[in-house]
Amino acid sequence: MKLANRVLGNKLFTVLMKATFYGHFVAGEDQIKIIPTLERLRSFDALPQYQVDKTFADRRYKVNSARTYFYLNEATCERNMEVFIKCLEAVAGATFGTGITAIKLTALGRPQLLLQLSEVISRARQYFEELVGGDGNVLNYHKTINDLEKYYVSLGIDNKEVKNFLKNVTSDKEGILHLFPWTGIVNDEFQLSDTFRVPDPKTGQMRRLISQIPPKEEEMFRNMIRRLNTIVKTAEELDVRIMVDAEQTYFQPAISRITLEMMRKYNKDKAIVFNTYQCYLREAFREVTTDLEQAKRQNFYFGAKLVRGAYMEQERARAEALGYPDPINPNFDATTESYHKTLTECLRRIKILKDCGEDAKKIGIMVASHNEDTVRYAIQKMKEIGISPEDKVICFGQLLGMCDYITFPLGQSGYSAYKYIPYGPVQEVLPYLSRRAQENKGVLKKIQKEKRLLLAEIFRRMRTGQLFYKPKGNYVPI
After folding, report:
1. What is the pTM of this model?
2. What are phi and psi of 135, to 5 degrees?
3. Rounded to whole angstroms, how far apart are CA atoms 50 and 72?
4. CA of 70: how far to CAs of 303, 311, 346, in Å?
5. pLDDT per residue over 9-28, tens digit each?
6. Is residue 353 within 8 Å of 390, Cβ to Cβ?
């Protein structure tokens, strides 16, 4: 593409791209020009881990398939927020309340703040595991605040600071939910370094799980949350849903925690905010079940997109370089098993809601996969469990220009089917197109079926004189 651009010049290169590669994978240059594509598609379809390391400072390293944002300054983050809001407005006008906009949290603030918050979450988990002598999330143990109080007293710890700590522990009748008042994340009075303090079992003194954060960085964190709040409020007003993308594992605990707090704040009557779970991670099943349990116990609507994952090579290289366990499943089959197990658990919980006469839409799942077997598995499980497309709790998603032979039959069979629609000027979406080129080189080696179908359609169009034919259907979004 770079060579063609130099040889042809910008103008001719742009014309060529629009007629070929760009035209296949990108919907248009701006939110106005994508409307015909949206309408046409709609007519058819339904610890060391958390340390900064210079080697991996460029987060594009060994990452081909995912968009990466780099923090320049607060003004850039403000502009990114405005771009996301324009995306919401573009979707709102063309999708009748069924649209979704994908956003990346690292575009809205300094990523190092997410790194620090992720480290706090990891340390908090370790702290609780040491207290109970097991592993896993605090929710799993059904320990009460009284249990914690007795534990500290048995160690001879019974001071005012510990009592204040216990007052702020979040719990319900089933036990402790969180050691910290996470609700503060989405509110202005939240101070990172002051909040994340726990009683030291050896000294009885309160100790920080995060180093003192300078006021300027506290302000940056507050700005990040303000931007996210602005985006989600706009989505709520425009009746569009927000899907927060998953990112690298060293950011993900913080991203998931912030997203869950946004769910708790905004998903009171329906699922507006969705989180993304990468099933190639060894911890994927446990993370999803923990978050489902939080949604159930704190009574908010849970939305999730299930994907395989986008950072495998980088994650493995970083884990080896920094000396922590590889977070990725050992092979493709293990990832498929993880995906299917996680999806089955979500479907099982939806079935329980239906059987109890509760709103089944309290759990909404997008099966975002280009894998035909995974899509077939999801449909089969839906049938076995008794979940129909009309329940509007499961939808499917693929990228524009990829696996149409999966997306369109799904929509025409009554399932909710989505296309991920990128847009922007040719020169600005070249990085996206290069990722699709690399991704499809591998995909098309494996998917003989799609190549065969595309070739058959080309011959059909040549025979019937419909070389530039653009089909249109009468699908109604569900």
Report:
1. 0.82
2. -130, 165
3. 21
4. 27, 16, 34
5. 988 988 888 888 788 888 88
6. no
Which residues, at least 6 apart from 66, have a Cβ–Cβ distance to it below 8 Å? Answer: 245, 247, 310, 311, 435
Residue 103, SS3 per DSSP = strand
Cβ atoms 131, 201 nearer than 8 A: yes
Could you tell me the two tokens for 250?
A: 């060293």
More confident position, 42 or 354: 354
Contact 179, 122 (CB under 8 A): no
Token output for 414 = 């009554």
E strand or H helix at 385, and its extent? helix 372-385
Nearest C-alpha neighbor of 231 from the set 443, 106, 87: 87
Tokens of 382: 């839906």
Q: Taking the domains of the chain in order of start, what are their residue ranges?
A: 1-109+219-464, 116-208
Residues 6+ apart with CB under 8 A from 339: 279, 284, 306, 308, 369, 374
d(Cα 286, Cα 342) in Å, to the nearest integer?
A: 9
The listed CATH number (3.30.70.270, 3.20.20.220, 2.60.40.420, 3.75.10.20) that belongs to domain 1-109+219-464: 3.20.20.220
pLDDT tens for 142-185 read 888 888 888 888 888 878 888 888 888 888 888 888 887 777 77
